[in-house]
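step 3/5: co-fold with iron/sulfur cluster
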Amino acid sequence: MEKSRRSFIQKSAFGMAGLTVGGMSAGAFPTPIASRDSNIQRLSAVHKMELMAEFENIIITDQFDFFGIGDLSNYSDKLSDYGYPLAEKYSKTISVGYALLPTIVDRLSVEPEFPSIELYQHFCYDLINQMIDNSLLKLSKILIKYGYDALPIPATKARDNTKPLYGAFSHKAAANIAGLGWIGKSCLLITESVGPRARWGTILTNAPLTPTGNLTERDCGDCNICVKHCPAGAFTGNNFKMNESRENRYDAFKCRDYIVQRGKKYGLSVCGICMKVCPYGRKT
Ligand code: SF4
Ligand code: SF4
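step 4/5: write tokens
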């Protein structure tokens, strides 16, 4: 790997404004690299550094703001409500995240003005989701090439009433156990740098990656701003607890029904008020 690129990653790690990343040095793959196939095993041993270079290259060229690795095996008893049955055969999660543009999030309002929700729908959902999913596919293919299993969990899309109102595995739980942030009363992941203003993708894998952090246990304390501002009244005001069900904090059906109504009124089914109002993401 080029020296300049490696320096960038190391300099950016846990930086205020740069990429939040951990475990991306060669040490992220402790030897020996296990593989299912002897040919792949030889390939993996010889090309260990190349694998890391490929991985890092995608994280940088695709301009992710967050990268983290979580150790599923440490939290299997706590993740049953977050898609753990799907993750049971995997030992690690890989989280990637994009920070949303504050110039767009700050424009959101209950009665949106043109072109606020168009910008939000396009740049904060459609485009970012596509970018995340493309990158998850590329990262998964690298892991599989080196002999590991990798199951990408796509970025969360708006869901109609024919599908369950949760993803196959919780991106927020994955980022939480990777040490990238904590989960607020809004059920959003709160990061140090941009609060909840980010979108996430996850890969489940059996690659022996070194975790970048541990479950971040923190809560909102007395803050109730998102609870008061949610136009659907979807939040109960309870703090997040990993082993409690989402319904203790959040009624996803109230949120979904409100967003469907907005779609009828304004033509686009997005809201994002809970993300906008959280003091952890606001600069002013
Ligand atoms: S997106 Fe809107 S309706 Fe849904 S929980 Fe957030 S503030 Fe409430
Ligand atoms: S607005 Fe307040 S209560 Fe809601 S998630 Fe942010 S810190 Fe927590």
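step 5/5: annotate
The chain has one domain: 3-277.
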